[in-house]
Amino acid sequence: MHEMVPIMQKCIDNCLRCYGVCLRTAMSHCLEAGGKLTEPAICRTSAHFMLIGTDHHKHTCRECAEICTQCAADCRRVGDMQACVDACRSCVESCRQMAA
Amino acid sequence: MHEMVPIMQKCIDNCLRCYGVCLRTAMSHCLEAGGKLTEPAICRTSAHFMLIGTDHHKHTCRECAEICTQCAADCRRVGDMQACVDACRSCVESCRQMAA
Amino acid sequence: MHEMVPIMQKCIDNCLRCYGVCLRTAMSHCLEAGGKLTEPAICRTSAHFMLIGTDHHKHTCRECAEICTQCAADCRRVGDMQACVDACRSCVESCRQMAA
Amino acid sequence: MHEMVPIMQKCIDNCLRCYGVCLRTAMSHCLEAGGKLTEPAICRTSAHFMLIGTDHHKHTCRECAEICTQCAADCRRVGDMQACVDACRSCVESCRQMAA
């Protein structure tokens, strides 16, 4: 198996974690509290692109960083979703490093 | 149900069709013929973003148009994949209209 | 490209169409009208399995038929979602033919 | 946010990890070594169903346990894919606990 650059592996982990936390939060607290339905699909897609080894991950990571920045801000505003805020921030940080 | 702009509905249809044709081709002819594994995940993600009604579809559609342009060129080069070339081109045309 | 059995191609089309209609409806009318969030992910997964040519589609198609039967019933109850009811029913019919 | 049963959270983690390891392996060593293309989509779908809180995860988890059992056996046969074998086995164990 080819060696995966550590910061890319970290980014994949952060994207998949963000996808999981955001989706679970969206299905429970977030919608009830008047939040917008967060869109964790981009996190999953970015992880997918890094896993299959295509350079297009640079563009999806850039997009992912933007969307998760917005999501973190929305979650802070709605409140009581610190796990989601934290997951988004780690995802943003990693994705910025991987973006074009 | 909110009205869907007809060119967006067309774009969703073209993206999902491209995803289907490319994935099926990738699993059969394409790999055997020495083609690169095409990546239809972006088509599916673009359709998803338009279906849930987020403006971020503008960025995924732009990315989708780029990737499918490349895919169509690869498929032409490998040969015997006209269905895939056609699906990619329709997808590119629609996605360019929806992109930012 | 290998020949695709026509009823399988029809099933793929019906699954992807059901995924699209249900997701779009869920994001607009359905949630506002007190409906449960439908889960079109299984339709997409069933289509995916048929497209890559694995026999496991028999199990996902069986599951898809069950979930879409329920979804059609929920949509009828909530009302004003005939497009969703119709898409689910076509999907159920196709998936039953493909199930184990 | 509703409390997630710890064995379900563990299962989600194992499914997403298995998806990542299998997909990455499939794109590199596995295909070159004559392995079959593994299908990690079911792991991702099972995680998705548990995350959105639907009881249908019982069926996808059962299916996931079956597919990953097969995948682990294939990977052992091809060789040099211990990470994939391990990820599949953890996934199988968790999914059996969550299956119907």
UniProtKB/TrEMBL annotation, chains A, B, C, D:
<dbReference type="Pfam" id="PF03860">
    <property type="entry name" value="Csp"/>
</dbReference>
<keyword id="KW-0614">Plasmid</keyword>
<protein>
    <recommendedName>
        <fullName>Ferredoxin</fullName>
    </recommendedName>
</protein>
<dbReference type="InterPro" id="IPR005560">
    <property type="entry name" value="Csp_YhjQ"/>
</dbReference>
<dbReference type="InterPro" id="IPR044543">
    <property type="entry name" value="YHJQ-like"/>
</dbReference>
